[in-house]
Amino acid sequence: MRCLVKGFTLIEMVIGILVISITMVYFTTMLNNSTKFVADPWHQIRAAELGSALLNEIISKSFDENSDRSGGAIRCSSVDTGAVNCTTPANLGADTNEDSRDDYDDVDDYHNLNSTGNDIIELSLPNNNNLANNYAQYQLSVSVFYDANLDGVNDNAIGTHKLIQITVTDPAGNQNAFSAYRSNY
């Protein structure tokens, strides 16, 4: 009579456990690496919202400190109106009486604006903690300069167009750039 024994040997068990262990390590490593890409779309959406909102805020302001704020009848540096010169490139930025974004009244006041965390949303919704938490690790910087020939390069001279460039850095360190021109009209 023959006795049939069914089962695994000790060597087969050890090899099976080893194969399962290697497979598990491979899959957990793959899952761990993929989780950092799951958050990227969320960061990109928030950066786009933030950049777009700030760009709209800036563009809604007048072209220059010396421009007419009641309809654009007087343009700075305009020969036909005899208006005063526009702000020189060296003097772009917030004016002496403008201490916060709430006081900014022309596009170049935003030049060299750098904000992080709560400073980003403080002006628009000061008591919204949920929004503050969403943007707590974001950074933004703004650059404004004259670019009369629309080539994206600083002209270092008074011109008819100002290029507004915004860079939003998300918590993962990705930089998102936004830009627009504001014309002297």
TrEMBL record:
Keyword vocabulary terms for this entry: Membrane, Transmembrane, Transmembrane helix
Superkingdom of origin organism: Bacteria
Pfam families: N_methyl
Spans through the membrane: 7-27
Record InterPro entries: N_methyl_site (IPR012902)
Protein name: Prepilin-type N-terminal cleavage/methylation domain-containing protein
